[in-house]
Amino acid sequence: MARLKSILICGSGVAAWFMAAGLSRALEGQGCRITVLDDGATEDSACLGRAVLSLPALRAFHGVLGLSEDQMIKAARVWPYTALNMGTYHIGIGDHGARLNTVAFHHFVTWLRQGGHKADIDTFSIPALMASAGKFTRPVNDPNSVLSGFSYGLVLDVGRYSDLLRTYAVSRGVDVAEGRLTKVDGSGAQIASVHRDQGAPLAADFYIDATGEPARLMSAVEVPFEVDLYLNANRILPALPHDTGVPMMSAGCQMLPVMGGVISDEAATNGDGRAFVQGRRAQFWVSNVVAAGHAAGVLQPFMGHELQLLHTGFTRLIGLFPDDGMSPVLAREYNRLMTQTFDRVRDFVLLPQVLRGQAEGPPELARKISQFKSRGRVVMYDEESYSESFWVSVLMGEGVLPERYDRIIDSMEPERLTQQLIKMRDIMARAVSAMPPLKAVPVTSGVPA
Amino acid sequence: MTNAITDIVICGGGTAGWMAAAALSKVLSRDVNITLIESDEIGTVGVGEATIPPILTFNGLLGIDEDEFLKATNGTFKLGIEFVNWRSPDHRYIHPFGTYGVDMQAIKFHQFYMKLKQMGGDSQVLGELEDYNVCAVASRLNRYLRPKPGMGEVMAGMKYAFHFDAGLYARFLRGHAEGRGVKRIEGNIAQVNQRASDGFVESVTLQGGQTVAGQLFIDCTGFRGLLIEETLNTGFEDWSHWLPNDRAWAVQTDNNGPLTPYTRATAREAGWQWRIPLQHRTGNGYVFSSKYVSEEAARETLLSTIDGRAITEPRLLKFKTGRRIKAWHKNVVALGLASGFLEPLESTSIHFIQAGITKLLALFPTQDFATIEEDEYNRLTRLQWEQVRDFIILHYKATLRDDTPYWVRNRDMAVPETLTQKMELFAAKGRIFRREDDLFAEDNWLAVMYGQGIEPKGYDPLVDGLGLEDIRRNLKNIKSVVARTVQAMPTQEAFIRHACASDAFLKSAHISA
Ligand SMILES: Cc1cc2nc3c(=O)[nH]c(=O)nc-3n(C[C@H](O)[C@H](O)[C@H](O)COP(=O)(O)OP(=O)(O)OC[C@H]3O[C@@H](n4cnc5c(N)ncnc54)[C@H](O)[C@@H]3O)c2cc1C
To answer: What is the model's pTM?
Structure first.
């Protein structure tokens, strides 16, 4: 068994260049040739909107590549955000309050409300407070500071982000093949070669399908697409110009500081805009091909899952990196992990719709909701991409109030506890009001042209 | 809350019963009455003396002072388990707690080790994988030092647990529980009384006629499962086709030789033998399958292989491996042996009790007993049991032994698909993926898969991205820091004498050693 000598990435846009950039860094010094062959697609291969949100974890990816945030800000019209505005509440990136006596904070909110107090969980969230006050500062490292429990993501212009990754990959020796992809030769269950409209067919030890929804390589090896049973939106219209500083999501409409889109169903749009079908491939890796971006699966825009799924897929691929023996064990493990990852993200995207009675949910999500309703317990399955606080924000924000709080609270002194909580809220409010405005962040203007 | 539980009855006063009493009385509000019933006549199993690191969390929850606890239970420190004769006769390896080496560039440390090993070269310089684990190296030299923050990267990778006297542990917890108002009743439960409408347990009646009522019953009555099985008939999932051991002989001996900071598990012709050293004595036992060796022969084997003088008569324990299908049913939650049994090879039973209590608190019911609480508890419990089951089966499946029918059978058995996948991934390139609730982390799986003789055929190709010289230098450096760190530790005996010696320890002979 020998190391892989060549990888061919088919496609364009964010999925293709994300993988190219990542692989060029991870396989540095291993003599593996990485080539990208454009498929001629006009739509992006991983993002439906013209802007996309990232989650904090993506910074680790940029860190490995050696891309500084300043570089990104210059090149990709980047805007930081700490919370997604959901209309009546925020999904903040970070903790609510602080743990007291090992009890998760949201139990105290339940306790306060049951005791007749008005308690809005947003007022215990630094990132939510920052978003609603239009403030921004970077978190600090000191665990004792109230400014340590949050983080922030970036709003990215999809086209510019893709170009940035492309420039990076090419500067590190990734080849751009001439011509466009025309036909895929799948002999048996694996890819044999890829044809193009000019030049000889290309062959490689390993392929990455970044051709977006058509998934031209995955289709060639006959991996079926499974339509999601619960998510039905299938159109996105480009968003109108607007000047929101904080990403917003309301009634099927996503507005990002650069430009998002209006998500809806076909009837409402008279067939305009970009069509899509939500769902995922039955497998993500078969024999010598791995799918990335929309070739792997499609979900309507929400809070950063597009890049998160690319990143997780990339990390897992590196963790299970094959040699030319292509052991099926690796693909099996990759598929197990990524199927769960995808489905748990799908649950998160679906959650507000289910809570508003607009959609049904799978049993895993039903369990999450009923456990929270009864106990305030957040069930976390294997391979969750969104941590507890994201789920709590949506559940409470959509009006689910647990019937009971953690019993440990009953062993605490109620008067003192109430005072402590009020004090906590005041400290948070003061900390946020002292922050500089978001507009003061030195970024290239994010208002759409 | 109007329909809050106000009366909890714990049936059974073994390790499970008193752990539950201590934890519930600590966490729940003072208004909840907790009663524990135990029978002197029936007694406890009296074994179960080795633990794993999460017990420190349990002690933390109870606010227990560690040294006081060790003094009271004749406790010692445990840095891992030494497996003797498991891979093949005369082979030994340590499954240490704690981490191997230091990861580099987000690549697991052992991948670098595998690369150098597979390249050949000076095996003397490279050493064994164990040389990079501080718990393993300290075990070999019988050293111990309690890790504290600020002691450096090597010590930060050190984890430990305890060995203790099961009887004294229950007594110690009883002190805590009674101090917080738990009421203890001595007596034999003769009858369990169910509500006619739905079969919920209403009360239990003791032999003398006294009736104890409650809303929540915790069944800690041992193997029989007086409430959960004998009353509610929840059923048992039998796992003995994977794990056929069904008996154990247990005997205590005098301490002999240096005090080892680890449990020893020695494979025998039809099972394995434990050795658990405490401050004042050593616990021993032979866990075996009665299909492959007679009780008499097993007793002989045990008595002829213990390394100190026997100070008790050998005692025979019988069990069946598997789990209660519903550890929580109606208003009964089973903890300890009443909830099922997995052999003590990785010392997980006491942890299951602790994990059960934690889950019960997170899902604490009210008097209406919503089924979603019961269902979630049972789902999580099943996941955890299955993961640990796979880990235990691994020790039997991955073996080169074929010297007795018992070992041939183990080697050839069909194992759960989840385990096969894990073993194949490791065999190919040393990869390990942990499942989220898995009690055992990557390094635990590594220790046992590698120790049992699964030798990865390759290594992670990403390792090639780092220069060979850098890798060599790093490994050499880590190995020597680990060695120096351990050299600077006191022996376990010296540490105990200084920090937590019991009266029995101070009186016993081996301190002169
Ligand atoms: C051979 C062997 C080795 C083990 N080694 C380990 C180990 O190294 N590490 C580990 O973590 N675990 C180990 N275990 C498991 C561990 O011993 C048990 O998990 C632990 O002791 C808990 O036991 P228990 O409290 O559930 O049951 P028991 O100790 O059996 O207690 C049962 C209690 O119920 C009471 N009772 C029963 N019936 C009645 C009745 N009718 N009326 C009133 N009271 C009643 C009894 O009086 C007693 O108090 C081992 C087990 C065995 C069999």
So the answer is: 0.87
